[in-house]
Amino acid sequence: QVTLVESGGGLVQAGGSLSLSCLASTRTFSAYCMGWFRQAPGKEREFVAAISRSGGSINYADSVKMRFTISRDNAKNTGYLQMDSLKPEDTAVYYCAIRSGPGSSWTGPDEYNYWGQGTQVTVSS
Q1: How much is the pLDDT for 104?
Q2: R_g over Cα of the chain
Q3: Cβ contacts of residue 55 below 8 Å, gap of 6+?
Q4: Cβ neighbours for 118, distance < 8 A, ≥ 6 positions apart
Q5: 19-47: pLDDT as tens digits
């Protein structure tokens, strides 16, 4: 059983930046691939970004490519999402998630085993 805790959300103006963190309770964080998802009110959970176990491979949703950066520090059992040039349409609850072993898709929520409770990101116009 693994607990994930997101932090760093808040309210920013369009064009601003936020840095999200995801602290994992497991001491074998490096054994898990990690992803970030977001969910806006009335919408389905949406893939944002994913990173491989050692950080060598990454994938981004087209909507955040060139603006968001996913990273991880396995020594700290922590994943990160740096968000720059934020837009109002980025407003959502952001979740980190991890999965053990390979999956069939980077983007499918069902591929991930453990989820955090989410952190609210609100971008004003």
Answers
A1: 78
A2: 13
A3: 71, 72, 74
A4: 6, 39, 93, 94, 95
A5: 999 999 988 999 999 999 999 999 999 99
